[in-house]
Design brief:
Length: about 350
């Protein structure tokens, strides 16, 4: 599958920087808001960017290993139950999207439950959950490709509604384990440093999770990015990978959530480096491996609130900051128009 992601052009950098520096404030005084404004302006190739129909897509999928309960404190059944909660408006992500007027879409990427065409649910089911990677690859390679393609198609459909700003979240009990394995596979950081508490393991629970995942990691012979993705899985992670790639190809502003979303981005980045040009890192998750992924990408996140939930909640909560960055660029007066002395 080919994605044609063009790197950001430098052509308007000087004019945008000039516009930012002409605003009625000391040079650089809006800090990271200035960096974000410049990035979105470059993505949209205009000095007056806008955020149109912001949308957050939650991909849900189940994990074979989660049935055993060795790496996850909550049972696998919670994934499907949370999907119903999303559809009924009762989850954290519903609250934050409602607060910030973000359109929310829920996708069944591979939950171990038959939703029987539940109203509002996008059916992209690859399979009723992945296999347990303790016994071999979580999914077949063709399932990995199919998930990437479906993620891309879902983004294309949303883009056609006029959306130019999209974030991705996930739901999948056990997926901090897949994310840790993918992190180790794509960054080279030792697996023990990638594993964290997930939804709240005790220190002995974390030690067991590390031991189990270290064994899985050692037993994996995958070499290509797609093989690694298929081995460690997550249909929701694979679909998010395709979603990141298509969103960047379509020059959308891409909102990156926490640890799981960033693990999908590691896969996308291994397939196409330029994807990072379109990404804004919305928060630093409390899951311990996340800040190391941010370091690997050499990126700073907007918020650091100790949130460790997933679902896209970090992206949705930080969204008003992104709006502030676009807002000042479009709305503030310049020294010249406001007739304010500017010695700089
Ligand atoms: C009620 C509930 C709601 C959630 N929403 C997101 N997650 C988050 O926790 C899960 C990953 O953590 P682990 O690997 O420890 O299972 C994912 O579903 C993730 O989205 C939730 C988890 C629970 C229990
Ligand atoms: O940061 C995340 O994405 C995260 C952290 C813990 C549990 N679920 C998701």
């Amino acid at each position: 599958m080919q994605f044609n992601i063009t790197p950001l052009s430098d052509s308007i950098v000087q004019s945008i920087k000039h516009k930012i520096d002409s605003k009625t404030k000391p040079l650089g005084a809006l800090g990271m808001l200035e960096t974000i404004a410049l990035k979105v302006a470059r993505i949209q190739e205009t000095d007056s960017p806008s955020l149109k129909n912001p949308t957050l897509v939650v991909f849900a999928g189940d994990h074979g290993i989660a049935k055993e309960g060795q790496v996850n404190p909550y049972p696998q059944s919670v994934t499907a139950q949370m999907v119903y909660n999303f559809l009924e408006g009762g989850a954290a992500i519903n609250s934050f999207c409602k607060q910030n007027s973000i359109d929310l879409k829920i996708v069944d990427a591979g939950v171990n439950h038959n939703f029987k065409n539940a109203p509002g649910l996008i059916d992209a089911k690859i399979e009723y959950g992945t296999r347990n990677y303790q016994q071999g690859p979580a999914m077949q390679l063709d399932q990995g490709y199919a998930a990437i393609a479906k993620g891309a198609t879902i983004v294309s459909t949303i883009y056609k509604t006029g959306c130019n700003c999209i974030g991705f979240g996930e739901m999948g009990i056990g997926n901090t384990s897949s994310a840790a394995l993918l992190m180790a596979a794509f960054t080279g950081i030792p697996i023990k440093d990638c594993v964290g508490a997930g939804t709240g393991l005790s220190s002995s629970g974390i030690a067991q999770k590390k031991e189990i995942l270290a064994r899985v990691f050692k037993g994996c012979t995958a070499t290509s990015p797609i093989e690694k993705l298929a081995y460690f899985g997550g249909f929701e992670i694979a679909m998010m990978t395709g979603a990141f790639l298509r969103a960047a190809e379509l020059k959308m502003t891409v909102l990156v959530d926490g640890f799981i979303a960033s693990s999908a981005l590691l896969v996308a980045h291994a397939l196409h480096k330029n994807v990072l040009d379109y990404c804004i890192f919305m928060h630093n998750s409390g899951e311990q491996g996340h800040h190391k992924i941010l370091e690997y990408f050499r990126q700073n996140a907007i918020l650091d609130l100790g949130m460790r939930l997933g679902e896209g909640t970090g992206a949705a909560v930080a969204f008003p900051i992104l709006q502030s960055a676009i807002g000042f660029l479009n709305d503030m007066a310049s020294f010249e128009t406001a007739q304010i002395d500017n010695p700089m």
